[in-house]
Amino acid sequence: MYLTVHPYKAFWELKYDRNQRASLWTAIVILALLSLTSILQSQYSGFLVNFNKPEELNSFMEIVYVVVPVLFFSIANWSLTTLMDGEGKFVEIFISTCFALLPLILINLPWIWLSNYLTFEETAFYYFSNSVAALWTLYLLFVGNMTVHQFTPSKTVLTLLLTVVAMGFMAFLCLLFFSLVQQIAGFVITIYRELTLRG
Amino acid sequence: MMCKRIIERLLSIILILVMCMVLPVSHVQAAPPSYQYSYWGDTVAAPAAYMATRIIDGVMMGAGALQEPADIHVTDDQEIYILDSGNQRVIITNHRFELIRIIDGFVNEGRMDSFNNPQGIFVTADKQLYIADTGNQRIVHLASDGTLLNIVRSPESEMLLSTFVFQPARIVVDRAGRMYVMTLGVFDGFMEFNVDGTFTTFIGANRVYVDPIEYLWKLLSTREQRSRMVQFTPTEFTNLDIDAEGFIYATNGDQWGDNVKKLNAQGTDILRRNGYFSPGGDIRYAYIDGPPRLIDIDVADSEIYSVLDAKKGRIFTYNGDGYLLYVFGGIGNRIGEFHTPVAIERLGDHFLVLDKGYGEITLFEATEYGRVINEAVRSYYQGDEERASRLFEQAVNMNANLEYAYDGIGKSLLRQGEYQEAAEYFKRSMDRKNYSKAYQLYRKETLREVFPTIMTGGVILLAVFIAVRRVLKSRGRKRVVTFE
């Protein structure tokens, strides 16, 4: 809570003064809460702002949509900053990333309930606060990254942009890997079938 | 032994009877079940709104077999005009398909003249005939008794290219006698002719669609190469119809964008597209089939209009707001299916579908479901929302998938001041705009009820709070005083 309004000080404390194990657990709790928020959001948001098809809602996928990008970001950022002599360790990056996501929970959670009492004209407020939450998170991400690696602001911006590119690469590699595995599996299965049918 | 067997048999009969009672009785439907598109774009089941009841060919009308008929027109007093293109004649029958007259020629400057592969026919309210005589490159205007009134030939205008060949294919005429002609090979829209047959202007041209990849190629190629490439041209219209107010409804052969249009006098498209999907036939189709190709449109009263998809032989009917009401027809060999449907026309609330390949007309009659929907849309259009709501409720009972009907019920509830229920119905029809309207009123209403209670509560709380603070303060002061 303190972190969201005093990011510089708080991220500093997070890196140097706090017990890392406790922070890690807090980070995981934040991530879990964010997943919960996104599930609740797609299920219980007001009719006017909820464009999800209820039959296609999958809580598990919602969790994946939250957790995987965070992990991707942390990994990509870590692999980049080790090359660009950042000071952060992987755990620190992960913790700071998760803490930066706090505004998303703080703003969006109450709006799930509030959005049920909106008219069409007032949905502007909903979208406005959503964007505020996103921007705030971005800002925290920036500050967190800067503090963790002890970078200059411009270098942080550069790393963040590169991180996004690296995430793209990772996603591509993952897809490639899975499709290859699928092909191999398909091949093996075909051979097995062929053998059993011949046998 | 016998006894046991009889008992067994009795038991089994009872069992069957019980099962018959328990299991829902399945309705036997004569017409094949139809479908609808839900808000989410899923195909959902719907009962048939129209059922083919008769097939009429030329022999039954007493006019001999039809040969490649191209167009059909029904007047307000239900006389049917069939353009029998292959036999170069017009067949006129009454609504029971009993022959009234055949027009196979007219007297032109003292000599008998005839048609040559005519493609379009229009009949005005006072039964003057306009025939797009495609093969002779002219429009023939006949009086109701078949005498020639006027012939419109290829116009001369600086708007036209020198290579222009006048091939009128479809024609409509508005109340003032202006002709709107769909001409083959013209990309600038419909040709508009004055009452006396002089060409005035083009209206309602389709927009040019530029394929980005082809555009890139064009940018990269030299001028000589470019001149040999296909030019980007807007698509032609495929058909048109005119409603009682003089608006032209048109279909075009586009594979993209809006292929149904409603043109006003200036040629701007004013079709309302507030339905779940913009009107234009099937929204789900196999990739190899491609999107539907609309070739005819028919406007009825109350802004209801139907379009004919040549690819699947289906007829889609929409209301003025652009909601899909019902679908029927198909390509096939059974009754109610066609070989090459070319024209649709309403005969009252019945549908006539002209099949060019078979030279037949299929008559479709509305089922109970179709009647209810037609009436509901009509009542709503006329402003009788209570009746519309009742009819929509009936429609919903027959087809719970008809989301549009919930909208109709919601609107009537909204008018009656039942805001909460209205909001519920709008939610069901996924109408966010009207939901918001209903919800706002409902919220206002509830707040107005609850507000006094909240305020009283608030004031009491405030009073209590102040009192408590004052008591605490005075106590504190006392204590301070004693300390001193």
How are the elements arranged and paired?
The complex is a heterodimer of chains A (199) and B (484).
Chain A: H1 2-5, H2 7-16, H3 20-44, H4 59-83, H5 90-100, H6 102-114, H7 123-149, H8 153-198
Chain B: H1 2-22, E1 34-37, E2 43-46, E3 50-57, H2 58-61, E4 71-74, E5 80-84, E6 89-93, E7 99-103, E8 106-108, E9 111-113, E10 120-123, E11 129-133, E12 138-142, E13 148-153, E14 168-173, E15 179-183, E16 190-193, E17 199-203, H3 212-220, H4 223-228, E18 237-242, E19 248-252, E20 260-263, E21 294-299, E22 305-309, E23 314-318, E24 324-329, E25 341-347, E26 350-355, E27 360-366, H5 368-382, H6 385-398, H7 403-416, H8 419-428, H9 432-483
Antiparallel strand pairs in B: 1-2, 3-27, 4-5, 5-6, 6-7, 8-9, 10-11, 11-12, 12-13, 14-15, 15-16, 16-17, 18-19, 19-20, 21-22, 22-23, 23-24, 25-26, 26-27
Helix pairs in contact in B: 5-6, 6-7, 7-8, 8-9
Task: Give your account of this protein's structure.
The complex is a heterodimer of chains A (199) and B (484). In chain A, helix 3 packs parallel to helix 6. Chain A has one domain. Chain A has eight helices and no strands. With 199 residues, chain A is mainly alpha-helical. The mean pLDDT of chain A is 88. By secondary structure, chain B is of the alpha+beta class. A four-stranded antiparallel β-sheet of chain B has the order 3-27-26-25. A four-stranded antiparallel β-sheet of chain B has the order 4-5-6-7, with no helix packed on it. In chain B, helix 5 packs antiparallel against helix 6 and helix 6 packs antiparallel against helix 7. About 2% of the residues of chain B have low confidence. Chain B has a domain of 323 residues: TolB, C-terminal domain (Neuraminidase, 6 Propeller), CATH 2.120.10.30. Chain B is globular, with a radius of gyration of 32 Å. The chains are: A mainly alpha (199), B alpha+beta (484).
